[in-house]
Amino acid sequence: MANDFTKAAASIEKLSTDIERQVDSELGDVFGDMAVTARRHLVDEGSVVTGELGTSVRHHDATADSTSVTGKTGYAAHTVRAAAPYAAYVEYGTGLNQRGTPVNGEQLDSPSVPPLGAILEWMAEKPVYPQKSVEGMSDHYAVAQDIANTIARYGQQPHPYMRPAWRRHRTDISHAHSRGVQTALRRL
User: Fold this and answer.
1) Do the Cβ atoms of 105 and 94 come closer than 8 Å?
2) How many beta carbons lie within 10 A of that of residue 33, not counting itself?
3) How far apart are CA 103 and CA 110, in angstroms?
4) Mean pLDDT by groups of 10 residues along the chain of 188 residues
5) Which runs of E-coded beta strand occur in 2-96?
6) Distance (Å, rounded) from C-alpha 127 to C-alpha 104?
7) Is the Cβ–Cβ distance between 130 and 139 less than 8 Å?
8) Domain extents for the chain?
9) 48 — alpha (psi -120 to 50), left (phi > 0) or beta?
10) CB atoms within 10 A of CB 185
């Protein structure tokens, strides 16, 4: 009889670790799905040009920053993070067009004039064709400069991808907690 109590006590002692492990595992799955949803949203909304931003959206067991969504339980912090340097500009917009903020109501410090090379690449990928000039030639550089000046003056419209992914999966997080606890209790 004492042996049964000893086994039960050992199982109960191990229970909190098992619950943390199971919940962390379930949350990892949810945050992995959230990263997929964010990448899919970028593509569906036409916010991807080179693919750098989409491929930079990943699930990590790490700490958060301004362009991430984080949930923490036990010992692991699950983060969906966009590592591209311009990720927050796409998510929130810039200048007069900024909607929402990554941290505590701060305005994003966007470049004063976007790089022409990036705009020319965007024009080629979308494609954006300038009208032909009087001489019958198109002036991609002049159009790129006009776009850069407009963005510098008015900002860039936001194209959210993380926030929609969070809204889509936030109820899944509480379900993941429940599944993790239930699985650990069944093993007791």
Assistant:
1) no
2) 16
3) 15
4) 71 81 88 94 85 88 52 67 86 82 66 78 81 65 86 87 93 90 86
5) 57-61, 68-73, 76-82
6) 37
7) yes
8) 11-108+157-186, 111-154
9) beta
10) 12
